[in-house]
Structure formats: structure tokens, C-alpha cells
Prior knowledge:
The protein has 14 helices and 22 strands. The chain has 462 residues and is an alpha/beta fold. Helices cover 32% and strands 25% of the residues. The relative contact order is 0.12. The strands form five sheets. Strands 1, 2, 3, 4, 5, 6 and 17 form a seven-stranded mixed beta sheet that branches. It has a five-stranded parallel beta sheet with strand order 8-15-9-10-11. It has three domains: 3-143 and 270-338, 3-Layer(bba) Sandwich (FAD/NAD(P)-binding domain); 156-267, 3-Layer(bba) Sandwich (FAD/NAD(P)-binding domain), CATH 3.50.50.60; 342-454, 2-Layer Sandwich (Enolase-like, domain 1). It binds nicotinamide-adenine-dinucleotide. Residues 146, 175-181, 183, 198-201, 206, 232-233, 266-269, 315-316, 345-348 line the site of nicotinamide-adenine-dinucleotide.
Amino acid sequence: xxxxxxxxxxxxxxxxxxxxxxxxxxxxxxxxxxxxxxxxxxxxxxxxxxxxxxxxxxxxxxxxxxxxxxxxxxxxxxxxxxxxxxxxxxxxxxxxxxxxxxxxxxxxxxxxxxxxxxxxxxxxxxxxxxxxxxxxxxxxxxxxxxxxxxxxxxxxxxxxxxxxxxxxxxxxxxxxxxxxxxxxxxxxxxxxxxxxxxxxxxxxxxxxxxxxxxxxxxxxxxxxxxxxxxxxxxxxxxxxxxxxxxxxxxxxxxxxxxxxxxxxxxxxxxxxxxxxxxxxxxxxxxxxxxxxxxxxxxxxxxxxxxxxxxxxxxxxxxxxxxxxxxxxxxxxxxxxxxxxxxxxxxxxxxxxxxxxxxxxxxxxxxxxxxxxxxxxxxxxxxxxxxxxxxxxxxxxxxxxxxxxxxxxxxxxxxxxxxxxxxxxxxxxxxxxxxxxxxxxxxxxxxxxxxxxxxxxxxxxxx
Length: 462
Ligand code: NAD
């Protein structure tokens, strides 16, 4: 048993990044993690394995749809599902072992097991009680289901089950057209599964720019996904071989059912805080079950802090990482800071979708004057060379000052390109600053510059 400056509970992107920064700042640090491997949901059953499956199935899609037109002839590859799963696990293992290496390098102790907090300053794992001056809760989130739907991880699965299905299903119903539903729906559609996405709202990807929503839906439809929008799923019943999804259309209350081999429940996630003993400690929660924190990630109990999916804000790995670094700095007596106005979000479909800052909808609601510069990838030589001319870059700037307020991209490498705008926004840049910056040719990023030019005197290639 040792005394620590900081014990962090949870080794996901929030917790492990926080631990590394604490150690770098000279704090004696331990992390409690009950999983067999470090990295939390993101590395083990989230961001990373899904990206491996997205990459593999995108490659298949390229071979099936684009190879012949590039003069690459021959039979398309067939799918060895067991090998694809092995590849995915190898990617996961490389990454989780990487965190273990970083822990050793930074002299961070990994306390294996599930933690409870019996009292401020104490973390109990098994029978042992460890002492810490400060505790950071970074326990993340777990899939949330809806009334009438029970996840069994066999026929009715969360993203966790969907990443490791024993075989590729013939028919899949996805409940929820959010990030998980569309990414994993894309994976299986590319593998030949008949995928139907049932969404409560009238649009896909809630909260995203409406031009992006429409374009993405059109493209995904062409890729074989079927959408039933404005439909509330009411019940899922499953037998040994099939599942039935009953839903009601909101516009006319008509009811219908769909049959599937697998149902993926992608209706959001909820904070994973059970078993920590928060109620007994008197830790204040929000009505949505998130741990309430102040501007420095402190809970109402002195010495206990919380970050990531367990608190308010977008449930994104990189938001948790930023909070991990910032709270470590606060604990080391420095001024930790997260700029919540500049947190990008990305959907890793093909094409990718990326967004940062405000949408037109939000600006309209706020009654603010803005201008829009939009540029289609049809005018971008590089995108056309790789058959990705669909999609666009849209930059929104203040009507008077030209300061960039948001950007929404659907197109190749959107998830990487968005960072140019993130940096610009961090510096309070105007659209003209981006427009005046030389961009290499031929790159996808030229479309970002063209959209910035479109905020002023006009894009060149439009
Ligand atoms: P989400 O909140 O993105 O989408 C859930 C969708 O389910 C919504 O569109 C909602 O309207 C719909 N829904 C809710 N109840 C319904 C019902 N009864 N019938 C039909 N539809 C219903 O949630 P998610 O996709 O499950 O993702 C969970 C979290 O994980 C999100 O916060 C997401 O940001 C995060 N995540 C991020 C990434 C990424 O950054 N690429 C990837 C995966 C997950």
C-alpha cells in the first residue's frame, strides 16, 4: 500500500492521459483499472476497433467499386471474417500495450481491480485501501438503451457486441442514426449486410449542420443503407434466430415491425459511475446522472474531481483527454484550461464528416448575423482523382468581423482537415486569414481555403 498524490479511477483516454500529465508534473500517481487491458472503451471496444473494421471494409468497398475503373482488374477479395476480427484485435492490443509502456515510462502504478471511494482521500480496490491527496473519477460511460429494448449482446447488441459478432449478419436493424449507428452500420453494409437504420428524429446525426445531414444521408443511401426517420422504436423481441423491432411513425402514429438477425442499439451512452459509492459520499449529480463539477473539474466533495464522459459535455475521447490534461495541471497548481467552444467532432464514415463550432441553426436561433462560404469537393482536383467529389467544406463567419464561428466538412479526410479550422478558431482568426494562407496543391485542404475565400470575394474553382 502506498500513499499517492493522485489516484485516477479509470484508464480510458481521460484517465490515462491525466495520469501521464500528473506524473510529468511530478505527482506520485496511480490509476485503478478493472479491465484486463488499459485504454478504456475507446481503445478496447470503441474508437480504435471500429476504425480497424472501417478501414478493412472501406478497402473492400474500393476493390468492389473503384478498382476496375482505375484499371485494376481481377476478382474482388472475399471476406475472411475471423481474420478481420484478428486484425482488429491486433490493432487493439498494439494500442493498449502502448499505454502500458507509457505507464512504466512515467512510473505510474496500475492498481488492477474495480475501485470504490469509501471516504475522501481513500480508494478501495478489493480489500486494500489506498490513500491519495486527490482522486480523479474518469470512469467513462456505458451504452444506454431505451424502454422496451434489452441488450443481450447476442441478438440485441450494443456497439461492444457489434464489433465482435460471430458472423456477418444478413439483416441488421440499427436503432439510432447517431455516430455509432452510422459508423457500424457502414461497416456491415459494406460487408453485404442489409442495414436498416431507424431514427426517432426526422434527420440523421442530431445536432450536425443540416446541409451535412442531407448530403451524408444521400451518400449512405447510395452505399446501401436504408433509413426510416421519424420513427420511435417501441419494443424489440428476440427468438433464438431472429429479432423483431416494433416502431411507430411519429407523423401518423402508424405501427410497423422489422425483422433482423442482429439489432444494434445505438441510442446514446450514459455515465458509468455505479459501484463507486458516490451516493454515500454525497457527490452531487446532474438530473442526467452526470457528476456535477465546477470550472476546475472539482466535485462538491473536497479532493474529488471528475472528467470525461462521467461529467457534462460531449461524450468524446478527445474532450476527456483535454480535461485529463487540464485537471492534472490544476492539481499541480497550474492553470488548466479547456476551450469547450473549439472541440471538433468527427464521424468516420466514407466520406468523413467533421464539425467544429457553431451551426447555422444555432446562429439563427441566437439571432446572430453570419455569412457562409461553401465549396464543393467537385472543384477539388485531388478529391475527384479518388472518386470523392461529393461533399463540401462550409465555413461560417461573423457577418461583420469575418471571425470564424464554425466549420462543417463532409468529404475525404474531413476528420484531419477540420484541425486547420480548430487552430484558426483558437487564434480568433478571420476567414480571410485562412484564405490568405498558401495551401499546397493538389490537396484536399485546398477546399478549406476555397471555402474561406467564398466568405469574401469568392472561391476560385467554384
Ligand atoms: P448519439 O447520441 O450520437 O445518437 C443516438 C441516436 O438515437 C439519436 O439520433 C437519437 O435520436 C436516436 N434515438 C433515441 N431513442 C430512439 C428510439 N426510441 N427510436 C429510434 N431512435 C432513437 O449516440 P450513439 O451513436 O449511441 O453514440 C454514443 C456516444 O458515443 C455519443 O456521445 C457519441 O458522440 C460517442 N461516439 C463518438 C464517436 C466519434 O467521435 N466518432 C464514435 C462513437 C461514439
